[in-house]
Amino acid sequence: MEGRVGHGTRMAGYGAIDPSIRNEKITWPVIMSSIVAASCGLIFGYDLGISGGVTTMPPFLEKFFPSVFKKMADATQSTYCKYDSHSLTLFTSSLYLAGLVSSLLASRVTKVFGRKFAILLGGCTFLVGTVLNCAAVNVAMLILGRIMLGFGVGFTNQAAPVYIAEMAPPKYRGAFNTGFQLFIAIGVLCANIINFVAFGLGNWGWRLSLGLAAVPATFVLLGALLVTDTPSSLVERVRGANSDIETELSELVEACETAREVDKVSFKTIFEKQYRPHLVVAGGIPFFQQLTGINTIAFYAPVLFNSVGFGNDSALKGAILLGLVNVGSIVVSMFMVDKFGRRALFIEGGIQMFICQIGLASILGATLGLSGNGEITKASGIVILLLMCLYAAGFGWSWGPLCFLVPTEVCPVKIRPIGQSVSIAVHFSVTFILTQTFLSQLCHFRYTIFLFYAGWIVIMTTFVVCLLPETKGVPLESMHTIWQQHWLWKKFTAQPTTVST
């Protein structure tokens, strides 16, 4: 090989270090810094959980969406169509349209001002949105608040996963980055519990649910003050004073030199042929993740349970149970992702979700039928809840956390901020479309909506099998090697030359 720096061996022209001979340590600073960054998932998760529960509260619907409130009391209305309202879905989906815009702006913000500033900015705008929502007196004020929430989520979702990926040792990068999804799940669970409590508080319960979003926003803001963007001090802090940091510091210096070229990079760079693999994977994974149907179920779990025959109280309890399952499955993923790899979890999770979607469609079709006027028995309700829990578990240890992990791994430093912005923009674009149309789809497709998502799961699992290389344990600066070994992507990437000494 070309030479050695510390104990690392380099490949000429790439500055890659052999990960097998690194001396990496997990220290409290790296744990705490990763927790701080991962906590950005709290605001996203809280919003995912809170919006669906609030939209089942009669006082909220009566005040802002009276047409939906009337349909709930209409015994002749199809079970599937009670919540079909474009204004109601706009309340939910406007956040993701704003997130789309802010995620595209975030690549420039993180490049010029750093990850820390993007996280602080996201926390501040989310806090403003929380105040507007809590104090809302009309639909316009509600949606304006949602837009501010969207800006906050867009900035934090762009900056936090990249920060964690760059901070964590390669050997444990999967587990650390999965922490972001874990905090999302914790946020969803907390929101569902708060919705359950707020449901019984009468006319002001929905304000409590929306207003308590200030708690995770404040946590993110205070935590962001503890992280630093200083590269050299960061290495010493997170790897420990007694660690062999010369190897990694040399890599960091080289990476920073490369990063200077980022200022010369425009957004269109990622569309160049050599970056085609990175674009396809960074954009394809969040695109497919949304087409598992998980976020529409997360948004509307109480609505969905209510629509298929559960009462309001039972619907919120079911949503809490799903949240608990999701949190537990993500914890499982943290232990599996760096042992079994990304591809294995993607594939297993896809198969599990496919079986559950087919099962849900079969039971709903047999009980409610296309008319939606049938009745779900207690036994059928238990099976539906069980299938949804198995579905949530399959998502929780596969497509959930890996959607935020893999795109941060595959892009080189030159295009990493742009690549992450593309990934988050695709995520929010598809989320906006699906949340804006889900209740209408449920009304028109009835139970076959689960077959729709099952079909997409087949496609996305095939995508992983054919086009996704394994990134487990590969240092970020050595990630080019996975493309050069892939049957298709090697046609797009340059081969390195090695020189022995």
From TrEMBL:
Span of domain Major facilitator superfamily (MFS) profile: 33-472
Key words, A-Z: Membrane, Sugar transport, Symport, Transmembrane, Transmembrane helix, Transport
The keyword Transport is annotated on this UniProt entry: yes
GO cellular component terms, semicolon-separated: membrane
Transmembrane segments: 26-46, 88-106, 118-141, 147-168, 180-202, 208-227, 279-303, 315-337, 349-370, 382-406, 418-439, 445-468
Keyword Ribosomal protein recorded: no
InterPro entries registered for this protein in UniProt: MFS_dom, MFS_STP/MST-like_plant, MFS_sugar_transport-like, MFS_trans_sf, STP/PLT_plant, Sugar/inositol_transpt, Sugar_transporter_CS
Compartmental location: Membrane
UniProt-listed CDD domains: MFS_STP
Gene Ontology molecular function terms on file: monosaccharide transmembrane transporter activity; symporter activity
Gene3D superfamilies: MFS general substrate transporter like domains
Cited Pfam families: Sugar_tr
Membrane topology: Multi-pass membrane protein
Family: Belongs to the major facilitator superfamily. Sugar transporter (TC 2.A.1.1) family.
Protein name as catalogued: Major facilitator superfamily (MFS) profile domain-containing protein
